[in-house]
Amino acid sequence: MMRTGRVEAFSDGVFAIAITLLVLDLAVPPLEESRREGLWAALGHEWPSYLAYLVSFFVVGIIWINHHTMLTLVDQVDRVVLFANLVLLLFVSVIPFPTRLLADYLLEPEGHVAAAIYSATMLAMGMAFSALWLTISARPRILRRPLDPATRRATLRRFGAGQVIYAAAVALSFVSAVATLALHGVLALYYCFDQLTPSGGVDET
Predict the structure, then answer these.
(1) pTM of this prediction?
(2) Count of domains in the chain?
């Protein structure tokens, strides 16, 4: 067993690297294009990269916020929680790859493949987050305070609803890659709200 400080520090580092890699994937327009059409026009052509970056930035940022909120409930962690946390970080760290893939192929004929890979990555991440929550909430001995059973069920339902939408996004990918990216943006807004208690606060009973 160990305190949560090391887990949070390591996790924060992974989140920070993932967000940094998103920024590094933003492309500067080629000089030839800017000379031919002007820099403003060339920058405008890069809008898929900017949109994909914005959505993924908020996704990673909101995962980090909810991850932090979850760990505030925990006093110490065991090996099972550590491995569940590692699985979540596995999918967080890979998010820059499908983001770049979707940005490059968003308007291409095979954009649906890139959108499906992006959506599948987010679905796997959502499932890993739910698994971490189940692992933590099923271990009363590691919690700072007991969790209300209603809180556990409500939180799991909220996570489950998000995963249903992620799965729907995989199907939507084969209809419209742009609409799929927009749906992920809407889902990021959904996860902005506190998912851990029915009332939006940490249950301390």
Answers:
(1) 0.87
(2) 1
